[in-house]
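Predicting holo structure, 4-fluoro-L-phenylalanine bound.
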Amino acid sequence: MANDKVSIHGAWASRWVFILAATGSAVGLGNIWKFPYMTGVYGGGAFVVMYLICIALVGVPIMLAETLIGRRGRQSPVNAMKSLAIEAGASRHWSLAALMGMVAALLILSFYSVVAGWSLEYILGMGSGRFEGISGEGAGAAFGGLTGDPWRLTLWHTLFMFLTALVIARGVVAGLERSLRIMMPLLFVLLLVLLGYSLTTGYFRQGFDFLFHFDPSKVQGGILAAMGHAFFTLSVGVGSIMVYGAYMPKNASIGGTVMAVGLLDTLVALTAGLALFPIVFAAGLEPGAGPGLMFVTLPIAFGNIAFGQVMGLVFFILVAVAAWSSSISMLEPAVAYFVERSGRSRAQVTAVLALLCWVVGMGTVLSFNVGAEAKFFVFGEEGFRLFQWGAEGGKTFFDSIDYLTSRILLPLGGLAFALFAGWVLSREALREELAAKSPLLFNLALWLIRVVAPIGVLVVFVAELSK
Ligand code: PFF
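Done. Tokens:
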């Protein structure tokens, strides 16, 4: 059956816009904040190698699976999977995977908006010269002051959520496509400016060696982290890429397009690392600072090198734009679904869902200050407790949502999407959607989707849970 369906939500003007959109979704806090600090924590080159392998063998194949399900189904992920399952004579319950992904994306958005909000505060801080000549203590206190103040966190969280909703409410073409056409080139220019600057610090070589020096003894510790990060950074396992696939023109080749997105995402992560580590070294700091790297170490670095304030401003604008183009992709699957289901206007549906995410996000806001003692998933002396105030162990609200999504929901979603594309859809459907140039390429893609990616996810998932 030829695939002539179109989505009721609109369509990208060309496959380039799909690349822009999917890259916009993939490139975000994961690349600029998480990747450099994880590389720092897991010892540099060994982590980078593992990450690249996971991207190639698991991340990109799942992205391929999502894109082709989306384009074939031409609806929100839930309805796309439902109708394709019925068409293939399989259980309509496959759509539960997309439903779970949709919820996961909304949960991610709830905390992503809070962290992205921090970058808004830092834009202001860099712009006003507050970090000029700042000491380590001063930078730590500034970050602690921000996270300790629920009102300020709420303000930025609200603003960021509003910006996200604004783009989504305007629709696929007038909102998403139009903003992405501005955001993405801006993002690449900012990144190149930063890279150019780090080349002049005199520490480029040291940063480069840190990122690419391979120490085999460090490989083991980072494997699980690398796999989890591959999911997060490519935005796979939640349906974001699937919904963007639904807006993709029908004649565009999926294989090459998805490869381009995977490559661009990797390139941005590596470039961000190459741009940031020399700046960290130039300020005489250590790269293994953990999650604080971006909000504590970098302000010190920017505050104490030549032209650091301007570069710091450029950097935090980059972070905010990258986070914005990602956050919209977390909201779109649910908005598309409820528009299809309720027949209400996109603006109404967006407002309700954004408000919902905002409320859940308040849990994250409070988990850094007045609610820091609220602990979930506590394994204590009296056994397991879902919630306990002031418990020793356990996770804060923010940590719980992060853990639940990245470690559990994304891998499960990714697994289900790969199995669905590989084993439920017919070979003809796959052949038509992939439109591979040679049988060899087609078989390779099929093998990656059917076997390699699912096994990869399962191995890591089981190892992770049994830790
Ligand atoms: N890929 C984004 C990043 O690296 O920051 C995060 C993300 C976006 C996760 C969209 C999930 C998602 F649906």
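The chain is about 75% helix and 5% strand.
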